[in-house]
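Weekly structure sync, notes
Attendees: PL (lead), two postdocs, one rotation student
Agenda item 3: pending single-chain targets
PL asked that the sequence for the first pending target be pasted directly into the notes so everyone works from the same version. It is reproduced below exactly as submitted, 197 residues in total.
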Amino acid sequence: MDFNILAENLIEQYGLISIFLVVMLEYANFPLPSEIVLPFIGIMVARGNINFALALMVSVFGGIVGSITNYLIGLYFGKPLLKYMMKKYPKTQPSIRSSMWWMNKYGKISVMIARVVPVARTVISIPAGINKMNISIFILYSTIGISVWNTILIYLGYVFGDNLSLIAYMVKNYSLIVGILLVIVVVIFYRKKKEKR
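Predicted structure, written out during the meeting:
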């Protein structure tokens, strides 16, 4: 069975527990794209099956638990795991390299920025573990980024209903635009910081 259909069936049948599990697995790098999963939660909210605020809180909590799982994997298994992932799944190479670059250059803020960029959203937790980022800081910045991403996608599902293809198209363009804007903001911020020094 297709992962997306399975995720939708789980959410439909088991509600909040399945939202937590599906989102946790997605943030732990299982092949469950949030562009489909989270808007479907919004559709369930629109149908009156789930409360919006509760669904959002559970999805954010699931995202944090999944992210901490990846953080711990990075912390204890480190660079050999990334090398294995890049060899086994060549398509992940650009995301892994960019995640490592962002982590090395911008540290904690890269965790928040990456949460609105496809693929990097989940991968960034591993470099954070490898770099032994303070776990409290990691959770704080992850929570902010995950909350923004999950709110937008659940709300899109709530507003646009069953038109998941339109939502996926909008999210793809949104991610690209927001990613570019955030890069510009971070670069300006650090340049000003260097000038002050």
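Discussion points:
- The mean pLDDT is 77.
- The first helix runs from residue 3 to 14.
Action: rotation student to compare against the earlier draft before next sync.
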